[in-house]
């Protein structure tokens, strides 16, 4: 046996090879009279018996903390929906008893109508009333059986873009035609605004455009 093989059989060497030791008959144990144990549990009992009481308590506290963390993690894993299975429906189910979103779940489950105020870039655009079919954490809403009332300016205040009034009037008439094509009916008109109404089977409203949601009391 050369020096390199002896180093592989030496327990204190950096070249120690456990596989070679298990298959070799020339291994010299560093402590041949050391006590042997059948299992790791038997060894732990001897170590704990001879351990300093303070260190023993610290070790027990660490083990308890580790056990508690493992139990909490297991409980979280059991109550957590896998990411691959998360969608708007699992979110609505999770929100059933928490905060304002819980009110939306109640309205959805009990078929209670809600009133939604929507906005555009500078003022309140209109009001929608209907039944909630779905929602998400961004307050995007899917409504059904929707009655919508919204307003439109009659015409621009002034030709700030250099357009003449005839062009602005033509654009306003085109807007009125578009409103009529989507089933909107003008129900009120004054010098500045026109109020339109329409009924929709389904409507999706972005959360960014929602100002207020309230329960419609019948």
Task: Tell me the total number of β-strands.
Answer: 6
Counting DSSP H or I runs of 4 or more residues, the number of helices is 7
Strand order of the largest sheet: 4-5-3-2-1-6
Mean pLDDT: 79
* Low-confidence blocks of residues: none
The secondary-structure class comes to alpha+beta
CATH class of the largest domain: Mainly Beta
Q: Helicity, in percent?
A: 25-40%
Which strand-content bin applies to the residues? 25-35%
What summary fits the major beta sheet?
6 strands, antiparallel
CATH third-level topology of the largest domain: SH3 type barrels
Please give the radius of gyration in angstroms: 38 Å
* Global shape: elongated
CATH architect. name of the largest domain: Roll
CA-CA gap between termini: 97 Å
SSE sequence, one letter per element: HHHHHHEEEHEEE
What's the topology here?
Elements (H helix, E strand, L loop, with lengths): L2 H7 L8 H5 L17 H10 L3 H27 L8 H7 L4 H11 L4 E6 L4 E12 L5 E13 L11 H17 L3 E5 L3 E13 L4 E6 L3
Antiparallel strand pairs: 1-2, 1-6, 2-3, 3-5, 4-5
Protein name: Sm domain-containing protein
Organism: Strigamia maritima (European centipede)
GO cellular component, one term: U7 snRNP
């Amino acid at each position: 046996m050369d020096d390199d093989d002896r180093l592989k059989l030496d327990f204190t060497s950096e070249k120690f090879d456990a596989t070679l030791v298990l298959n070799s008959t020339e291994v010299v144990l560093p402590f041949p009279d050391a006590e042997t144990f059948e299992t790791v549990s038997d060894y732990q009992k001897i170590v704990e018996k001879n351990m300093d009481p303070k260190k023993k308590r610290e070790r027990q506290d660490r083990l308890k903390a580790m056990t508690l963390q493992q139990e909490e993690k297991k409980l979280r894993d059991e109550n957590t929906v896998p990411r691959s299975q998360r969608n708007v429906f699992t979110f609505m189910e999770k929100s059933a008893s928490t905060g304002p979103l819980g009110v939306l779940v109640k309205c959805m489950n009990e078929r209670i109508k809600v009133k939604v105020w929507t906005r555009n870039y500078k003022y309140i655009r209109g009001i929608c009333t209907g039944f909630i079919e779905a929602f998400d954490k961004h307050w995007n809403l899917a409504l059904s059986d929707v009655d919508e009332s919204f307003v439109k300016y009659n015409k621009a205040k002034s030709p700030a873009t250099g357009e003449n009034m005839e062009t602005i009037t033509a654009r306003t008439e085109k807007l009125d035609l578009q409103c009529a094509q989507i089933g909107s009916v003008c129900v009120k008109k004054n010098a500045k605004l026109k109020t339109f109404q329409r009924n929709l089977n389904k409507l999706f409203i972005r959360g960014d455009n929602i100002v207020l949601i309230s329960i419609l009391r019948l």
